Amino acid sequence: MLLQVPSLSIQEEEIFSLIGPNGAGKTTLLQALSHLLKPFQGEILFRGSRVETNHSVLGYRRKLAMVFQEPLLFDTTVLNNVASGLKIRGMKRDEIYDRAMEQLERFGIGHLNGRSAKTLSGGEAQRTSLARAFALRPEILLLDEPFSSLDPPTRDSLMEDLEHILQQTRTTTIFATHDRLEALRLSDRIALMNKGRILQIGSPEEVTNHPANEVVASFMGVEAILTGKVIKRNGGTFIASVKGQEIEAVGDIPLGETVVLCIRPENVALSILSSREGTSARNVFPGKILKVTSLGLYQKVQLDCGFPLVAYVTNHSLEELSLVEGKDVRASFKATAVMVIRK
Amino acid sequence: MDLILEGIKKAFWLLITFDPEVMGITLLSLEVSGIATLVSLLIGISTGVTVALSRFIGKRMVVSLINTGMGLPPVVVGLFVTLFLWRNGPLGFLEILYTPTAMVIAQTIIATPIVMGITLAAIQQLPQKLRLQILSLGATRLQMVWILIKEAKLPLLAAVMAGFGGVISEVGASIMVGGNIKGYSRVLTTATVLETSRGNFDVAIALGIILLLLAYLVNLILTQIQQRERPR
After folding, report:
1. Of A31, A32, A277, B8, which is most buried by a Cβ count within 10 Å?
2. Which chain A residues touch B143 with a CB distance below 8 Å?
3. pTM of the full predicted structure?
4. Which of residues 13-32 of B touch A (CB under 8 A)?
């Protein structure tokens, strides 16, 4: 796996997420940051000083803790597992067990301390793994997809607890995940990765609403990504021509420039053609439903409005508007809902 | 039938009275095979772990060689040890052919690949990322290796059993390099061969029973440890 990161700096006490599809290089970057992999080129600085000699690598590694997707517990009791990192550091016995118990209680698994780690459920095992990391009181916590192999209810409760604990400890955290919702929930900043490169770094709001390019937009949940040309300007807004249709968006962009317009499916409203309801949306397009896919709690409706568009509607609206494939509807979205990427 | 019954009766008599010759043979067996097993554990585990953890060109070939070594025919080992220790051989100056030391050497050569092969497999079956996890817990390389060995302790106990079992019951190499000298290099297996060929079935049976008991006892103890360590 080739990784190309010109530079990356992590602030103290922040929760920094690395997101991107599988194979984007998140794990490789985490392992390089923790010096488990030696970078071919470049260096790692911790509080301004270089980590390079064997001695300083060990010292550096002992300032951080890492949790993987698999719990990777040792074949011993839960308590001994949580104590293992402290034992490696040669700490005194009493102190080790006090600290380990403290973390077990913190993760709500104090009662499991004498159990063999092999008998734990997936959630309990991952809690043990996290407790083992926190017992080290790390200055940096590295999480490599820690929730990915858990079932949704287990994941939610563990994520909630972790969020709470991180608020208390204010541990600097680097969190790799392929799930953008996990990242949006926990992070102060997000780096979006693809094919070994970082495409954008920003706050959750920035990467969601101001994607740097189409890949970021698509990963952050944008379904309609359209290329057009600016044909009119009108004091702060502009109109771009997309396959002959005119879409209005916000921005100060010169005439003739090519832009990429991104429209989130949750910002697209559907109504039936005959309705006369007024809409404040500037962009209103008649279109035909190509496909309706259930996403469980809501439905994904793919439309042809002269350009492809996707809308999410609730199960309730789907029934009320009797949206079926082939039906003609009216799609609308606000000019402010269109994210603009300049080319 | 009488022959067998009479043999078993006499055998028990020899055992109950702690016949000095039989006891001497038993102790020597334990000593030779015990030392050989210990030495093979030292060499086998360290080499096995090293091979398992390192990446190099030709690793597969080395692994196949080790696995082949797990089935080394004792007589072939006996032959080569004899050749090396022969008066004019490369190591002839040591003058240890037909001594218990030579037997320890031969048995070590037999047991080492067994221990090495099982160690190799045991370490390789641990999850790849476990190493990274241990290092990220702040372990030095040596601490990491030690933790991995502890994680593989159940199969490693099997390695001890297989190694010891392999050499205590081995006869070909011991007879060739030890010479089966009475009161000096005679062990349970070589004595059994000799007594059987002489028609002294009672002694042979007694020796056979002891051999079985020893193998059973050693395995019983190790199995106890193994099962105690096994998570409930």
Report:
1. A31
2. 88
3. 0.85
4. none
Banded model confidence at residue A50, pLDDT cuts 50, 70, 90: confident
| Mean local confidence (pLDDT), B133-137 | 96
Domain's final residue, options A217, A242, A261: A217
For residue A142, what is the nearest residue in chain B, using CA coordinates? B136
- Encode pLDDT of B37-82 as tens digits: 999 999 999 999 999 999 999 999 999 999 999 999 999 999 999 9
How far is residue B120's CA from residue B125's CA, in Å, rounded to a whole number?
9
The number of domains in chain B is 1
Residue A251 is given by DSSP the state: S
Domain boundary among A190, A217, A244: A217
Report CB contact under 8 Å: A88, B132: no
Residues A127 and A180 grouped into a single domain: yes
Domain count across chain A: 2
* 8 A C-beta contact, residue A83 and residue A75: no
Phi, psi (rounded to 5 degrees) for B187: -115, 175
CATH at residue A254 = 2.40.50.100
| pLDDT of B103 higher than 80 | yes
Task: Return phi, psi of residue A4, to 5°.
Answer: -130, 100
A26 phi-psi bin (left φ>0, alpha ψ -120 to 50, beta other): alpha
Residue B232 has pLDDT above 60, yes or no: no
Distance between CA atoms of residues B116 and B152, nearest Å: 13
Distance from CA of A128 to the nearest CA of B (A): 13
Q: Could you tell me if A89 and A184 lie in one domain?
A: yes
Instruction: Name the token pair of A99.
Output: 């600290």
CATH number for position B213: 1.10.3720.10
